[in-house]
Amino acid sequence: MGFELKAGVSLPELKRKVTQADINLYARASGDYNPIHIDPEFAKKTPLGGTIAHGMLILGYVSEMLTGAFGMDWLESGKLDVRFKAPARPENTVTVSGKITAVGDGNGAKLVKIDIECHNQNNETVITGEASVMVK
Amino acid sequence: MSEETKIAAGELVVGYEFPPASYCLDPETVALYLKATGGGDFYREGKLVPPTAIAAYAMAGMAENMALAEGTIHTQQELEFKRVVTVGETVTCRAKVSRNLARGKFHFLNIELDVRDSQTRPVMAGKTGFILP
Predict the structure, then answer these.
(1) CA–CA separation, B48 vs B80, rounded Å?
(2) CA A112, A117, A121, A123 torsion: positive or negative?
(3) Residue range(s) defining the domain that contains residue A63
(4) Could you read off the pLDDT of A3-36 as tens digits, one per residue?
(5) Strand ranges of the sheet holding A125-135, from the earlier edge strand across to the other edge
(6) Which of A57, A116, A130, B49 has the smallest count of CB within 10 Å of its CB?
(7) pLDDT tens sequence across B56-86
(8) Do B32 and A71 touch (CB under 8 A)?
């Protein structure tokens, strides 16, 4: 673990550029072919004005960041509770960040609570929420 | 299920259980997910399935049976990971409506997810929140 396990510590960030190709691939992977994600002509006529990434694709980035930070502990005991605040669009660069808010003891492990935020290159919030993990 | 035979999300009653959906998390399926989300060396090395991939498949199973109107917004997601799944395992996803409430201009729909492995051990639980138009 390349960071100290205490409140106030920021986890290593993860940055991903969202592309329409990734969104199309995610549609194939997840089976979610909603045209708002994959059909630019359709999406242009909606209030969103263009295609947007699946919220779950961006949540995949969040989990990737937490897997990088906590490894198997995240996969075995991770909890996430997030709100989707704004869509991520093709060519956006999304930064996933996390800050430890509390470290407590529980069942021989440490219960770590983390504030999560994803924002785009314009500093608009895409996702906010909380995560927790039992670190052995 | 065709679009015509899907249940309109706004008409789902609290307690309604979607038909369970089982998926084999074969190498091609997982590789496609990892390619879409980028990164993933930790998963590839351990032949592990990203938990958010399982959540995505659980939601896809739910969407097979539910018609979400244009303008529906996925507003909230809770996930709780309980067991690591390796590539090649089969999981079964169950989904149940826990809230369907119109309040003022907003219509809230919450669906709870429960994913288990082939020995019925819990793999993942979650809650998905939508605002319907």
Answers:
(1) 17
(2) negative
(3) 14-18+53-135
(4) 999 999 999 999 999 999 999 999 998 888 888 9
(5) A14-17, A93-106, A109-119, A125-135, A79-84, B73-81, B122-132, B106-117, B90-103, B21-24
(6) A130
(7) 988 887 877 888 887 788 899 999 999 999 9
(8) no
Please provide the average confidence, as pLDDT, over all residues in chain B. 90
Spacing of C-alpha A80 from chain mean position: 10
- Helix (H) / strand (E) containing B59: helix B51-63
Residue with tokens 């994803």: A118
Q: Which CATH number fits domain B13-132: 3.30.479.10, 3.40.50.280, 3.40.50.10330, 3.10.129.10?
A: 3.10.129.10
- CB-CB under 8 Å, A46 with B60: no
Nearest to A97 by CA among A73, A76, A127, A77: A127
